[in-house]
């Protein structure tokens, strides 16, 4: 069987921590900031770790080499 390639889109959106957790950008900051509260905008800065069930899907299906 040929080697499996890592999905290029997933490489740009997710990365693994040293302990194997999946880190992703916070959701909800692309558009429509006027209707969001300032607290939500402030809390959505930076990155967050995905929950275990979502992280398992990302690692198994998209980050083949990780």
Could you provide a short overview of the structure?
It comes from Kiloniella litopenaei. Belongs to the bacterial ribosomal protein bL35 family. With 66 residues, the protein is of the alpha+beta class.
Q: What does this entry look like structurally?
A:
- By secondary structure, the protein is an alpha+beta fold.
- It has one domain (8-61): Factor Xa Inhibitor.
- The protein is built from three helices and three strands.
- The protein has helices at 8-13, 38-43, 52-61; strands spanning 14-16, 22-25, 47-49.
- A three-stranded antiparallel β-sheet has the order 1-2-3.
- A hairpin with a 5-residue loop joins β1 and β2.
- It is elongated.
- The mean pLDDT is 92.
- Belongs to the bacterial ribosomal protein bL35 family.
- Keywords: Ribonucleoprotein, Ribosomal protein.
- InterPro entries: Ribosomal_bL35, Ribosomal_bL35-like, Ribosomal_bL35_CS, Ribosomal_bL35_sf.
- This is Large ribosomal subunit protein bL35.
- Order of helices and strands, N to C? HEEHEH
How many independent structural domains?
Answer: 1
| Total strand segments | 3
CATH topology type? Factor Xa Inhibitor
CATH architectural grouping = Irregular
Low-confidence stretches: none
Largest sheet: 3 strands, antiparallel
Q: What is the percentage of strand-forming residues?
A: 15-25%
- CATH top level? Few Secondary Structures
Structural class: alpha+beta
Radius of gyration using CA atoms only: 15 Å
Number of helices: 3
Query: How much helical structure, as a percent, in the residues?
Result: 25-40%
Q: Please, what is the average pLDDT? A: 92
Gap between N and C termini: 19 Å
Shape: elongated
Side by side, the strands of the main sheet go: 1-2-3
């Amino acid at each position: 069987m040929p080697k499996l390639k890592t999905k290029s889109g997933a490489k740009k959106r997710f990365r693994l921590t040293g302990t194997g957790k999946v880190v992703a950008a916070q959701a909800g900051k692309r558009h429509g900031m006027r209707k969001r509260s300032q607290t939500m905008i402030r809390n959505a800065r930076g990155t967050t770790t995905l929950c275990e069930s979502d992280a398992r899907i990302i690692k198994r299906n998209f980050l083949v080499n990780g």
